[in-house]
Amino acid sequence: MTLVETFHAALSSLAVNLPRPELLPERLARACAQVLPVDGAGISHFFTADRRLPLGASDPVSAEAERLQFTAGEGPCLSAHAEGTPIVAGESTIEARWPAFPGTLVTHTPIRGTILLPLRHGLQGIGAVDLYVVPPNDVASLSVQDALAITEEIAVVLQAQSLHDRQHSDGPAWLDAPAAQQRSTVW
Are 129 and 116 in contact (CB under 8 A)? Predict the structure, then answer.
C-alpha cells in the first residue's frame, strides 16, 4: 500500500470510534500521526489575521501544544500560515525564532520539534497541519515530501466535506469540532 492509501485506511478505521462529522479534524490528525513518523499532529483553521481555531489533535499533548501557541501569541503554526510555506523547526530553531513560545512548550509538553505545513488547494491560506516530535525522535527523521502528501490528502478530505455540507447547512461540520467550540467559548 502507498502512504496515501495507508492514510485513508487509518482514517476509515478511526471513523468507527469518531463517527460524527464534526470529529473529522480529530480523525484526520490521528490518522496523520499513525502513518507518519511523528508523535502527534494538530489541524488548525485561520479565519482572520488574528483568529486561529484548533480543529483537532491526535492526542492531548498535541492539543496542548496547539493551545500554547495562542497563549504565547506566537509559534511555528502562526508563522507557517503567515509565510505560506512549510516550516521545519527543531528545539534550537523554536527557541531562536519564537522566544515566547518554547518556555511554555517545554514546561507543559515533551515536544521538542515541529513541522508545520499550510493546507493547499481550496483551503490555501485558511488552515495548517502541525506535526510534533518528542525525543528521541527528531524533525530530520521525517520526509517533508511524505508530510506534504498527507497534508494534501487532509485538504482534499476537508474540502470534500465542506462541499457536501454547504448543500445542507451554513458551513462545514468540522468547524463545529470540540476544540473549536472550546476556543469560541474563550473568545
Answer: yes
